[in-house]
Design a protein that fits this description.
With 175 residues, the chain is of the alpha+beta class. It has 4 helices and 7 strands, in the order βααβββαβαββ.
């Protein structure tokens, strides 16, 4: 499958991002949300990422069709967490297991290095074996699991946290 990674553009990609988010909400435990997102919510999400300086990237095929997207954002609200982010990667159901997720996550790691971040965290539903394997293959390590952290589809869900520690920033500072 041929594709390349680009910066995701709200005006061009919002509908496809919304479709992927809503499929994850309605049919998977990849996103612990109940209600599908409206176009307005997706645009707000894009706006919040842009305002905070966090990237949203997309995998697109030669025709420009969005196959998947990824981003990261603030890990926790306190200032001392400024070098840590939590990421997410979503791939359209028709394009999974073709290297799209791997390419997106590898590019996110590169962008985190460029932004001088230190820790990338992924919260993964423990039943998502493919995502767990991908993260481990790219150097993430399991750092803990919160049992029964979510409730969806009539059952309790456990979320496992995976962490990648980068050698950046070169000169971290307080404040």
């Amino acid at each position: 499958m041929e594709f390349h990674i680009v910066m995701c553009k709200p005006d061009e990609h919002a509908a496809a991002v919304r479709e992927i988010f809503n499929d994850a909400i309605l049919h998977t435990t990849a996103l612990y949300d109940y209600k599908p997102w409206s176009r307005a919510v997706v645009l707000q999400w894009f706006g919040a990422k842009a305002k905070s300086g966090f990237p949203v990237i997309a995998a697109v095929d030669p025709a420009g069709v969005l196959l998947g997207f990824a981003s990261y954002g603030q890990f926790r609200a306190r200032p001392a967490y400024k070098y840590s982010v939590e990421h997410s990667v979503y791939v359209h159901r028709d394009h999974r297991r073709h290297g799209v997720g791997r390419a997106l996550l590898k590019r996110l790691i590169e962008l985190a290095r460029e932004q001088q971040l230190h820790v990338i965290v992924g919260g993964i539903d423990v039943s998502n074996a493919e995502s767990v394997a991908l993260h481990e293959q790219l150097g993430f390590r399991h750092v803990g699991t919160i049992s029964e952290a979510g409730y969806k589809f009539g059952r309790w869900l456990d979320v496992a946290f995976y962490q990648l520690t980068l050698p950046t920033p070169g000169n971290p500072v307080d404040g």
